[in-house]
TrEMBL record:
Residues spanning the signal sequence: 1-19
FG-GAP repeats: 271-338, 342-397
Domain Integrin alpha second immunoglobulin-like: 613-722
Name of the featured protein: ITGA9
Native organism: Mytilus coruscus (Sea mussel)
Keyword Cell wall biogenesis/degradation set for record: no
Keyword Amino-acid biosynthesis in record: no
GO terms for cellular component: external side of plasma membrane; integrin complex
Family, as annotated: Belongs to the integrin alpha chain family.
Example GO BP: integrin-mediated signaling pathway
Pfam family, one: FG-GAP
Domain Integrin alpha first immunoglubulin-like intervals: 448-609
GO molecular function: integrin binding
Membrane topology: Single-pass type I membrane protein
Lineage of origin: Eukaryota, Metazoa, Spiralia, Lophotrochozoa, Mollusca
Length: 1040
């Protein structure tokens, strides 16, 4: 019966991660009634499919309560209309036994006959017993069905209920040798078992755990037959039938608890002896929930996969419950040896996903000769199915494709609770399959895409690339920049490609990729159809099966400049990556690229340099200067001459790196082209102490690069802050290195040069002094005279006076008598950088032959005058008659001074005068450079004297008087003389003004006054006329 409006066909497109050959852009989505569990099971056959909805209602039997329905749906990829799905009227005569029987809970295809089971079917007369029942849908007549003849006599055996709660058909598999359906019966006799049902004959056989000799392995309520699979495992003694694998997810051992188990028995053997048994390793993991047999490593021997969907991760059991895992046991050809793999398949290890809830051996869906597996995690998001592609000689632990149910349909729930076996539905020789979401009542048909192996090829010609390519086809004819041609070719082949005549390829071409990967600029452009681009994107290049298709592009160097020549050692790499065109075509699936295909290919070429292989220049560098030193504060610039010479093969893009000390600053450079230098360009790099100089694009043998580097060596550059010998460098140092990025220098020993220019400090010092007071008067009542001698030490430059010494000599003897004691001397300074010390007093005996008296007698007839008759002074700092003060001066800046003050008292009793006389007491200051390793030079050793004059006390009051009448007479005489001179000047006409009379006479003769009068009248007339015109304009305006 047709049920309109309950089914729909949709084309779903979604993004897939790690996509391989399951087409996710052209899917068919079948939808069933709400709460029907549509999609719980399914079978694919040619151009139609059977879908189970085990909780649906038969429209023709309204008296039945959710018996379950099997639908037959046609499949047509050429139309977009909704396909017609029909309910198959599968029922038994007894109505009450079919309520909630879960028809369509499992099904299997046996040679075109579909066995559909209802494992909750109840036998008439015993409605409390869920025995289970199966039906056969024949290919020749889909409306005909028959049930396998289970009778009430099978309920009992020896007065015991054997199959009363058997749930026959809970799981289902097919024999590999016979047209027999193998039906799991997990409730059989409380331990489990299976039933074999031959679809071509009448009859069935029950195999229960109780029949086995090793009954201790069949525990109560272990649910043997919960999952079931069939395989062939050589070495099983006396077993020529199928080997049947059954899961027991509730199996509990006496020691480990409910860890689950899987048993392998010889099929159709009434003894049910266990040939092999596997156990889970976590309580409650559900080990045995699902089992499949496959050849996952392509060795031709059956392997076993067992799921445990409730398993947690050992590293964090609480947070990772129900993550799920699938165990692999590799067949070896010997029943006794099934090798477990240490690792398990687990998808993306998502907690709560229940990975392994359903899984199916899809067979070889990618045509590589090895089985592929689909494993569902229906509780990861809205459900996920992982595709594991088997590989020959390898156990792949990573999935090849992950299909998200939410991207098929936003309302999807528990996507993957069912996965069907595979079948080629579109005749492209690749098997297809369905994935069910019974909670959402949907079944989705996925198709497998043909797999092609693409052979790409890329070639650069000519290679090496000539530096002058003007004669090549790749040249544009107007430039000589290097160029070359690149050929890109494709062909393809594969297995089962009868439906594939051609493919479309998109490719992306990059040039100079080794440099761009290092974030360096590309040196070339790609030219295609006369258009130059950095990258070429070519779409939909059609490749016909059995033929090779090629494209050609040109590669051109953008500019043969210094940057290019500096990179000649770098290969020019051209890289192409490609993919197949993915545009969807309604009703068709496009081929997919085999993972073994290389999707990235490249070729490389170097540039011709004229050298035999790698160029080997010999660069020699030298640093020179005509400035032998730098005078601090005087020298402003330092000029360094750099000479770079090549003595061997060409040096491409030679470079000079000059690093200078941090007490100077780079100012400029100047190439000495007049001396035959190549052009040079310099610039600061890095930390402002490094100069990089590019010396042309190429330096041939015997060519030179000669240039000046100019540095600032002013005070601001030489040092910062306070001058201190530990803070500054005493040399300006330069280190130069010649480099060639393309090639290897023959002799690296002459690639470096050093130069150090010493810094010297020169100072010119001026010393001045004064005495306070300048004179003193000696009387009989005076015992001591106090004086202060002050010396000012001034640095005129050009350099700071780094360290110097000032010696002040004070004479201490007069006529062999001390004129003062050292204890009376006080020394002061104006700043803390000057430190003065009075050296120990020399008490040695004075030579009596030295005459230093101060008395000179003049004849009595001569007028007395105050004249010095004797100086008390030291000859030098070594004079033993003198006291010596030593002052140390540190860091005296230019145009700065320091003051030294010496306070002393003279003993007045040591001085005597005859007539009128005076004594000059003189101290002397000497400036010397201090002994130090510091490069300081005092340009002049300055010496300064300060004198205090001593007079007898009587000269203080002698002032010669002057007669007042002499002053008055002089003033009167001056006034009379001034009057006489004025009178004489008046008489001669000096004060008479003739110029004015001459001007007036000129004006009279030239009619000046008449002309002036006429001009005034004209001005007055003009002003009057202007006023009249203004009034006239106003009148005209008012009239208008």
């Amino acid at each position: 019966m047709n049920i309109d409006g309950l089914f729909c066909l949709s084309l779903s497109v979604f993004v897939v991660v790690n996509s391989f050959n399951v087409d996710v852009k052209n899917t068919l989505t079948f939808s069933g009634p709400e709460k029907s569990y549509f999609g719980y099971s399914g079978i694919l056959q040619d151009n139609w499919m059977v879908i189970g909805a085990p909780k649906d209602n038969l429209t023709s039997e309204s008296n039945l309560v959710s018996p379950g329905v099997v639908y037959r749906c046609s499949v047509d990829f050429t139309v977009s209309t909704v396909p017609q799905c029909t309910q198959l009227p599968i029922r038994t005569p007894e109505s009450h036994t079919q309520d909630n029987q879960f028809l369509g809970g499992s099904m299997v295809d046996i040679n075109g006959n579909i066995v559909v089971c209802a494992h909750l079917w109840k036998i008439p007369g015993f409605v409390e017993y869920t025995v289970g029942r199966c039906h056969v849908i024949k290919r020749t007549n889909v409306d005909t069905n028959r049930g396998f003849p289970f009778t009430s006599s099978d309920l009992y055996s020896g007065n015991r209920f054997i199959a009363a709660f058997g749930m026959i058909g809970f799981s289902i598999a097919r024999s590999k040798k016979r047209p027999v359906a193998i039906l799991g019966a997990p409730g059989m006799n409380e331990k489990g078992g299976y039933v074999s049902f031959n679809v071509s004959q009448t009859g069935y056989h029950i195999y229960k755990a109780e029949d086995g000799q090793d009954t201790k392995s069949f525990e109560h309520q272990s649910y043997m037959g919960y999952s079931i699979a069939v395989g062939h495992f050589s070495g099983l003694s006396s077993c020529n039938n199928d080997h049947i694998l059954m899961g027991m997810p509730s199996f509990a051992s006496s020691t480990d608890g409910h860890v689950g188990s899987v048993v392998l028995v010889c099929g159709f053997d009434q003894n049910m002896d266990i040939s092999k048994q596997f156990f889970g390793n976590q309580i409650g993991s559900g080990f045995g929930y699902n089992v499949i047999v496959c050849d996952y490593n392509g060795d031709g021997k059956d392997d076993i996969m067992v799921s445990a969907p409730f398993q947690y991760l050992e590293r964090n059991p609480v947070a990772t419950t129900d993550t799920g895992a699938v165990y692999i046991f590799l067949g070896s050809g010997n029943m006794a040896i099934l090798n477990p793999i240490n690792a398990t398949l687990s998808g993306d290890n998502i907690p709560g996903s229940r990975f392994g809830t359903s899984m199916v051996n899809l067979g070889d869906i990618n045509a590589d000769g090895v089985d592929d597996i689909a494993i569902a995690a229906p509780y990861e998001a809205s459900g996920v199915v992982y595709i594991y592609s088997g590989k020959s000689g390898e156990v792949k632990m990573k999935y090849s494709q992950k299909i998200y149910g939410k991207n098929i349909d936003s309302g999807m729930k528990n996507f993957g609770l069912f996965i069907s076996n595979s079948h080629d539905m579109d005749s492209n020789l690749y098997s297809d399959f369905t994935i069910g979401s019974p909670i959402a009542n949907k079944m989705i048909l996925f198709r497998s895409r043909p797999v092609v192996v693409v052979t790409p090829r890329i070639q650069i010609l000519p290679s090496p690339i000539p530096l002058n390519s003007s004669a090549l086809d790749c040249s544009d004819g107007s430039s000589v920049e290097p160029c070359t041609s690149v050929t890109i070719c494709f062909s393809f082949n594969g297995t089962k490609l009868d439906s594939v005549d051609k493919i479309e390829v998109n490719y992306h071409l990059n040039a100079d990729t080794d440099r761009t990967k290092q974030r360096k600029s590309s040196r070339v452009l790609i030219v295609y159809n006369s258009t130059a681009v950095k990258e070429l994107y070519r779409q939909k290049l059609i490749i016909t099966k059995g033929r090779q298709v090629c494209d050609m592009v040109y590669i051109r160097v953008t500019a043969a400049d210094r940057q290019f020549f500096a990179s000649l050692e770098d290969d020019m790499v051209v890289q192409m990556n490609y993919s197949l065109q993915e545009d969807s075509i309604s009703g068709q699936v496009l081929p997919v690229l085999n993972p073994i295909s290389k999707t990235i290919v490249s070729d490389k070429a170097n540039f011709q340099t004229g050298c035999k292989g790698q160029c080997n220049p010999d660069l020699v560098i030298n640093l020179q200067t005509q400035q032998h030193n730098i005078v601090h504060g005087q020298t402003k610039q330092l000029i360094i001459t750099v000479v770079l010479e090549n003595r061997d093969e060409p040096a491409f893009a030679p470079n000079v790196i000059v690093k200078h000390s941090n007490n100077t600053r780079y100012v400029a450079h100047r190439a000495l082209l007049q001396r035959g230098s190549v052009p040079v360009v310099c610039k600061e790099v890095m930390d402002n102490t490094t100069i990089s100089c590019n010396c042309g694009n190429v330096l041939y043998q015997q060519q030179k690069a000669i240039f000046h580097l100019i540095y600032d060596v002013s005070i601001e550059s030489l040092h910062q802050g306070d001058l201190n010998s530990t803070d500054i460098l005493l040399n300006v140092e330069l280190n130069a290195v010649a480099r060639v990025p393309a090639g290897v220098d023959n002799n690296i020993g002459n690639n470096a040069a050093q130069l150090a220019v010493p810094i010297e400090f020169h100072s010119l010092v001026q010393v001045t002094g004064k005495s306070q007071p300048e004179q003193g008067f000696v009387s009989f009542s005076t015992n001591n005279l106090s004086f202060i001698h002050t010396y000012e030490v001034y640095n005129t430059g050009p350099s700071p006076m780094v360290t110097s010494e000032v010696f002040i000599a004070l004479p201490q003897y007069k006529n062999h008598e001390r004129v003062f004691n050292g204890s009376s001397i006080k020394i002061g300074t104006s700043n803390n950088t000057t430190d003065c010390t009075l050296l120990p007093i020399n008490n040695s005996t004075v030579n009596p032959n030295i005459n230093d008296g101060n008395v000179i007698t003049t004849p009595s007839s001569t007028v007395s005058t105050v004249i010095p008759v004797k100086d008390i002074v030291c000859d030098d700092i070594y004079d033993i008659r003198c006291l010596l003060i030593r002052c140390s001066l540190q860091r005296l800046a230019v145009d700065r001074s320091t003051r030294i003050t010496v306070l002393f008292e003279l003993d007045a009793t040591k001085f005597s005068f005859i007539q009128e006389q005076s004594v000059y007491f003189t101290t002397t200051a000497y400036v010397f450079p201090a002994e130090t390793d510091f490069p300081f030079e005092l340009l002049r050793n300055d010496t300064t004297k300060v004198t205090s004059i001593l007079y007898p006390a009587k000269t203080e009051h002698e002032v010669q008087s002057i007669n007042l009448w002499i002053i008055v007479g002089g003033v009167l005489a001056g006034v009379i003389l001034l009057l006489v001179i004025g009178l004489v000047m008046w008489k001669v006409g000096f004060f008479k003004r003739k110029k004015r009379e001459q001007v007036n006479e000129y004006k009279r003769k030239s009619n000046y006054y008449e002309k002036r009068k006429t001009q005034r009248l004209e001005i007055a007339r003009s002003k009057a006329l202007s006023k009249v015109m203004s009034r006239s304009d106003e009148v005209m305006l008012h009239e208008t």
